[in-house]
């Protein structure tokens, strides 16, 4: 029997990046099945199609992959290309979709959220361009989840996901592939591997923290096997179902082991971390933290030194809450710079239309048009290639960059797991007052403009509203507020703070001190601490 009756579940609306829920929610009978069937239906069915399937190795990933394979077979798919062990990093999945000309793919991951039976799980659909489904498709998926009455699933033994090669599942072919090889080969086409081998030969020391998540096997293959970095350069290199209890989010709060090492006396020259599914990155030098917005700006300014980008960039895009540091580089290089809502899916059209080749977000995501996802190890290799070419330390590169372009002090303050109603009321009150704010003085700062960001996609004309509140102060400082679309518990309020300092003597301050006026103004305007009773943010990036 392949047809199974079912009833809709509430709450199957994809967020910033696919559907993310507590793992046990996904493990309820029919929950995963409903969402996957709704996805298949929303993309016009999968009859005769080829899809890529894999995930970040988290708890329930293998079981979910087996279910999805049986559903794809019952829905008439011709071929499923699956990473061995159901493993694929998000950028590697994007690459496989493109390279193999697949019709799309399913990625099993809740990204940087912790994994395990009591933590998070997620499912995301990517299109034939290798990128996350756009809002038109995620809305259609959600619509379908609300009316679903049956799903299809083949009653068959589990296919073998551990041996490379092809097997049959009903009429469908299951092709199990090495999850790493094609991705590592792609990296060799973009970067100067000889220069990087020479760098490691010369005694350059690097620490890559894979946080017990999917990049471990990729990082070992690329840095240790192909580039000759010493064994042990990659730490927490084995993907584990619960990420060894780590919270695989590469930021100073969660990657604290790496932070301690890089800020310590015997720090290596270069440090990096990636997240659960391998699309995020954090960049560090000895004693130096590089904010994601600054990292994007440095990559833009130096991309011409990297073989894959030696011909120049087509254009640049950043998400709205990301700092304007990269805008200054784009201006200097005469490149277009686009400002999109949060979510990698908004970059896809711009890349497909050949308008941009470099994109980035403050949320530790950077990437290029080599795939249609952000790519953690790619960003690490970009930095390595730039370090090898410029023969400078990370700290020297940052100082040089700020001296040339000025510095956009930047920080994000997150208040996590707030009661949803409280968070929505707080922002609702702000929305009601936006019009009155312009021209007012707050903690010594005058408000130059205040609005709620809406985006018109320049390629297809689609409009996305309600993408965050922007309050701009005279002099170029600003604060942005929005609710996260990736959390699974209550509401996470993100407060993005930015201040531009053009003067050379204003470049070397602690960002929290430099941003103190904006932090005070936000409290006066929104009253976050007063209304939530929180003493301060849970995470500061
Ligand atoms: C996802 C999206 C990113 C987004 C980030 C944070 O990243 O792909 O584009 O910037 O979430 O989103 P939010 O602020 O709504 O939580 P990932 O790494 O979780 O897939």
Automatic annotation (TrEMBL):
<feature type="domain" description="Alpha-D-phosphohexomutase alpha/beta/alpha">
    <location>
        <begin position="293"/>
        <end position="405"/>
    </location>
</feature>
<dbReference type="InterPro" id="IPR045244">
    <property type="entry name" value="PGM"/>
</dbReference>
<keyword id="KW-0479">Metal-binding</keyword>
<keyword id="KW-0413">Isomerase</keyword>
<dbReference type="GO" id="GO:0004614">
    <property type="term" value="F:phosphoglucomutase activity"/>
</dbReference>
<dbReference type="InterPro" id="IPR036900">
    <property type="entry name" value="A-D-PHexomutase_C_sf"/>
</dbReference>
<keyword id="KW-0119">Carbohydrate metabolism</keyword>
<dbReference type="InterPro" id="IPR005846">
    <property type="entry name" value="A-D-PHexomutase_a/b/a-III"/>
</dbReference>
<feature type="domain" description="Alpha-D-phosphohexomutase alpha/beta/alpha">
    <location>
        <begin position="12"/>
        <end position="151"/>
    </location>
</feature>
<comment type="similarity">
    <text>Belongs to the phosphohexose mutase family.</text>
</comment>
<dbReference type="InterPro" id="IPR005845">
    <property type="entry name" value="A-D-PHexomutase_a/b/a-II"/>
</dbReference>
<keyword id="KW-0460">Magnesium</keyword>
<feature type="domain" description="Alpha-D-phosphohexomutase alpha/beta/alpha">
    <location>
        <begin position="182"/>
        <end position="284"/>
    </location>
</feature>
<dbReference type="Pfam" id="PF24947">
    <property type="entry name" value="PGM1_C_vert_fung"/>
</dbReference>
<dbReference type="GO" id="GO:0006006">
    <property type="term" value="P:glucose metabolic process"/>
</dbReference>
<protein>
    <recommendedName>
        <fullName>phosphoglucomutase (alpha-D-glucose-1,6-bisphosphate-dependent)</fullName>
        <ecNumber>5.4.2.2</ecNumber>
    </recommendedName>
</protein>
<dbReference type="InterPro" id="IPR005844">
    <property type="entry name" value="A-D-PHexomutase_a/b/a-I"/>
</dbReference>
<keyword id="KW-0597">Phosphoprotein</keyword>
<dbReference type="InterPro" id="IPR005841">
    <property type="entry name" value="Alpha-D-phosphohexomutase_SF"/>
</dbReference>
<dbReference type="GO" id="GO:0000287">
    <property type="term" value="F:magnesium ion binding"/>
</dbReference>
<dbReference type="Pfam" id="PF02880">
    <property type="entry name" value="PGM_PMM_III"/>
</dbReference>
<dbReference type="InterPro" id="IPR016055">
    <property type="entry name" value="A-D-PHexomutase_a/b/a-I/II/III"/>
</dbReference>
<dbReference type="InterPro" id="IPR016066">
    <property type="entry name" value="A-D-PHexomutase_CS"/>
</dbReference>
<keyword id="KW-0313">Glucose metabolism</keyword>
<feature type="region of interest" description="Disordered">
    <location>
        <begin position="1"/>
        <end position="20"/>
    </location>
</feature>
<dbReference type="Pfam" id="PF02878">
    <property type="entry name" value="PGM_PMM_I"/>
</dbReference>
<dbReference type="Pfam" id="PF02879">
    <property type="entry name" value="PGM_PMM_II"/>
</dbReference>
<dbReference type="GO" id="GO:0005829">
    <property type="term" value="C:cytosol"/>
</dbReference>
């Amino acid at each position: 029997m392949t047809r199974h009756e079912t009833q809709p579940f509430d709450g199957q609306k994809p967020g910033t990046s696919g559907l993310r829920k507590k793992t046990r929610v996904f493990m309820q009978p029919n929950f995963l099945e409903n969402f996957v069937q709704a996805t298949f239906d929303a993309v016009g069915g999968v009859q005769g199609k080829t899809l890529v399937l894999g995930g970040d190795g988290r708890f329930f990933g293998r079981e979910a992959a087996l279910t999805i394979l049986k559903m794809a077979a019952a829905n008439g798919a011709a071929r499923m290309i699956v990473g061995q062990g159901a493993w694929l990093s998000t950028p590697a999945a994007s690459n496989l979709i493109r390279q193999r000309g697949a019709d799309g793919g399913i990625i099993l991951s809740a990204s940087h959220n912790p994994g395990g039976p009591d933590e998070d799980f997620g499912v995301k659909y990517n299109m034939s361009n290798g990128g996350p489904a756009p809002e038109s498709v995620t809305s259609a998926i959600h619509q379908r989840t609300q009316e679903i009455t049956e799903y299809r699933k083949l009653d068959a033994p589990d296919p073998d996901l551990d041996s490379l090669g092809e097997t049959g599942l009903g009429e469908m072919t299951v092709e199990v592939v090495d999850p790493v090889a094609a991705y590592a080969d792609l990296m060799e086409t973009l970067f100067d591997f000889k220069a990087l081998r020479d760098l490691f030969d010369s005694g350059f020391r690097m620490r890559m923290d894979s946080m017990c998540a999917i990049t471990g096997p990729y990082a070992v293959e690329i840095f240790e096997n192909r580039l000759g970095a010493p064994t042990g350069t990659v730490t927490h290199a084995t993907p584990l179902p619960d990420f060894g209890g780590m919270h695989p989010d590469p930021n100073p709060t969660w990657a604290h082991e790496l932070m301690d090492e890089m800020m310590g006396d015997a720090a290596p020259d270069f440090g990096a971390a990636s997240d659960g599914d391998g699309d995020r990155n954090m960049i560090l030098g000895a004693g130096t933290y590089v904010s994601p917005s600054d990292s994007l700006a440095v990559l833009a300014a130096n991309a011409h030194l990297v073989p894959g980008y030696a011909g120049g960039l087509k254009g640049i895009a950043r998400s709205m809450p990301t700092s304007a540091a990269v805008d200054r580089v784009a201006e200097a290089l005469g490149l277009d710079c686009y400002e999109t809502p949060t979510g990698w899916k908004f970059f896809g059209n711009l890349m497909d239309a050949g308008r941009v080749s470099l994109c980035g977000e403050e949320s530790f995501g950077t990437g290029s048009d080599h795939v249609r996802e952000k790519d953690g190890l790619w960003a690490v290799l970009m930095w390595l290639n730039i370090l090898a070419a410029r023969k400078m330390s990370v700290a020297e590169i940052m100082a040089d960059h700020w001296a040339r372009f000025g510095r956009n002090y930047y920080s994000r303050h997150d208040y996590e797991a707030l009661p949803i109603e409280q968070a929505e009321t707080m922002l609702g009150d702000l929305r009601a007052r936006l019009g009155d704010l312009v021209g007012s003085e707050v903690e010594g700062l005058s408000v130059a403009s205040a609005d709620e960001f809406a985006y018109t996609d320049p390629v297809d004309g689609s409009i996305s509203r309600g993408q965050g509140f922007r309050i701009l102060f005279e002099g170029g400082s600003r604060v942005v507020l929005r609710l996260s679309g990736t959390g699974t518990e209550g509401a996470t309020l993100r407060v993005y703070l930015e201040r531009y300092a053009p003067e050379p003597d204003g470049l070397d301050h602690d960002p929290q001190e430099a941003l103190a006026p904006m932090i005070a103004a936000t409290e006066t305007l929104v009253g976050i601490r007063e209304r939530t009773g929180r003493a301060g943010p849970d995470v500061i990036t």
